[in-house]
Every structure is written in C-alpha cells, then in structure tokens.
Design a protein that fits this description.
Elements (H helix, E strand, L loop, with lengths): L11 H24 L11 H26 L11 H29 L6 E3 L3 E3 L9 H32 L5 H5 L5
C-alpha cells in the first residue's frame, strides 16, 4: 500500500492518522467521563488524569503532524457526483473537527497548568506551564473542555453517518477511499 495519498485514495499515513485520531478521541472521552467520577480514595484518582493528559499531549503532536501531512500529501479530490454544497459542507466540517480538536486540547492544557505546574508526559518529559494568568482559568477551561469534547464526539458521529450516506445512498467512493481502496 502507498504511503501518500493519490487522486483516487488515501495513503497509509493518512488512514492511520484518521482512524488513530478517531479511536484516541473516543478513548480519551471515555476515560475523561470515567475519571471525573473517581473519588479521592480510588487507586486511579491520580493515574487516570495523568494518563488522560499524557495521551492528550501525544494526540496534540499527532494532530500537528496530521496538519503538516495534509500539505505534504493533499487528500484526494471530492468524487465527481458531489455538488458544490456537499463540497463546502465537507470542507467546513473537516475544518470544524480540526479546529475543535486543537481547541479542546488547548483547553485541557489550560486546566492542567492553571496552578503553574507543568504536565508530565508518561513520566518521560514535562510540558511547562506557560499560561497561568487567566482569571478562573481551570474552571473556564474545564467548562470549554467538557462541552467541546461532547460537541466533537457528537459531530464525529455525524461525520461517520455522512460517510455511510455517501457509501450506501450516493454509492460513491468517499468511504472506501479512507479504507485504502481505489475509487
């Protein structure tokens, strides 16, 4: 299988980034919902958030690479049967997902560093606390992080439903191209 995208399908790098980010986002969402219910005496009270933050920072790095990769290896053009409104909706939808993902990760960073302490990443290195001056930083960023996470998950479900619509109703190659098959 080819590494780069072609005019008829996505390459291996784009597919791994797409499906890997999707899986990671859902796992982080589930972990986040689970860990806020932990009590102080739970064995995971500290480990859950540490794991969540470490995976989130790693996801941020992969998202940066994903944006760069879109310039290095542009995605295949839309299928011929997609009209102008569908193309605009796809462009805006993808832009919304990218911007929302970065925003939710930045909000997570602001929550974690509000007290001036850096974020250890898998106990290998630490991301420093650079922004600590926003009034009520942890609470505001926490609300943004929570609600935006829900929006991303719900919007990604719509994204998946749109892909299924393209596959089963429009009978175009939008979905199969992201599975590595030719159009």
């Amino acid at each position: 299988m080819q590494l780069k995208n072609s005019s008829s399908r996505y390459g291996l790098v784009s597919m791994v980034l797409h499906w890997g980010v999707a899986l990671t986002v859902y796992c982080l969402f589930a972990l986040g919902l689970w860990m806020v219910g932990l009590d102080y005496y739970s064995a995971w009270y500290k480990e859950g958030p540490d794991l969540h933050r470490s995976i989130g920072i790693t996801l941020f790095a992969f998202m940066l690479f994903r944006v760069i990769w879109r310039f290095v290896s542009p995605p295949p053009p839309p299928t011929a049967n997609q009209g102008p409104l569908t193309r605009i909706a796809a462009l805006l939808g993808h832009a919304f997902l990218y911007i929302s993902l970065f925003a939710v990760m930045i909000a997570g960073y602001l929550i974690s560093t509000a007290d001036g302490v850096g974020i250890p990443v898998f106990n290998l290195f630490e991301i420093p606390a650079l922004i600590t001056f926003i009034p009520d930083q942890a609470n505001v960023a926490g609300a943004v992080h929570l609600y935006l996470a829900w929006v991303i998950v719900l919007f990604s479900v719509l994204h998946g439903l749109a892909a299924l619509k393209h596959h089963f109703i429009d009978r175009d190659a939008t979905l199969v191209r992201m599975l590595g098959r030719k159009a």
